[in-house]
Amino acid sequence: MTMLATKTAAPVEPAAPKRKSLARRLVPYGYLSPTIVLIVVLMVVPIVMVISYSFRDNVIVQDNSVFAGFANYTKVLTDPDFLAAIKNTAIFITVSMVAHLVLGLAFAMMLNTELLGGVTKAIFRIVYILPWLFTIAVIAVIWRLLLDPAGVINYVLHSIGLINEGVNWLGDPGKALWAVTFINIWSGYPFFMISLLAGLQGIPKDLYEAAAVDGTNWFQRFRHVTLPQLRPVIISMAVLDLIWTSQQFALIWMTTGGGPLNTTEMLSTYTYKQAFSEYEFSTASAAAVIVLLLTMILAFFYVRQQRER
């Protein structure tokens, strides 16, 4: 009986295939583990720390930090400088986005037209893309020199009789915000131009030929053929530009530093000053969390729009 029971229980499947199957399933996670570790260390951990700092007081500079609740958020949201930064950021973003779209679409359509030859298009393409090749530091230095009261811009305007004396474009409270906005427009439109040019080249010519047969003019073809075909590209670019422009820091800091009189203060420069000028890391963390929430809302709409495509 014992031998019979032993023979009956013998054919048990080994666990080796199951172990191999589990090992194969874990292989992709092994390849992803370095990236996951970097994301956790460089992104998740800092975000959690900043969020925790925003609910405490006397952080970093002192050992005895205390829980402050929403006091830091209340302090930030009632700060006149923060409200001015929101206003300046809204103007900066809106004007830049509209100008990027208009200039990018205009130059893209010019480079896509059949009225220009190949060599002419190549030359214009190089000229138009130049601003995108410079780093923010180079762009800031160039435009600080150009907009200096004794710079080239003032010299040209004075030569043609538009101004009587040199204008301090980056130092005048009434002109500084528009000056840095112009610089941002100049440095950012090539990205729109390239993306919209790719979209224009992807529109089937049959649509234009069919519209021409129907007797439409160029504006009607632009309105009813070009714009609807470019709509997904325009929406994606607008949301991305909104996110990137809202986080612009280097250009503002290297041209005006948020001045004069906070007329060019942005959310990014306000947060930086709170942390590294005032050493108010708690309020800086609260401001950073607010900016993070706004950025996440914009990112949500971008991802949603990409899924709809």
From TrEMBL:
Gene3D superfamilies in the cross-refs: MetI-like
InterPro entries referenced in this protein's UniProt entry, alphabetically: MetI-like (IPR000515), MetI-like_sf (IPR035906)
Membrane topology, record value: Multi-pass membrane protein
Stretches that traverse the bilayer: 29-55, 90-111, 123-146, 176-198, 233-254, 281-303
Entry protein name: Sugar ABC transporter permease
Primary subcellular site in the record, as a coarse category: membrane
SUPFAM superfamilies in UniProt: MetI-like
Domain ABC transmembrane type-1: 86-302
Protein family according to the UniProt entry: Belongs to the binding-protein-dependent transport system permease family.
Subcellular compartments: Cell membrane
PANTHER family: BLR7065 PROTEIN, SPERMIDINE_PUTRESCINE TRANSPORT SYSTEM PERMEASE PROTEIN
Superkingdom: Bacteria
Keyword annotations from UniProtKB, A to Z: Cell membrane, Membrane, Transmembrane, Transmembrane helix, Transport
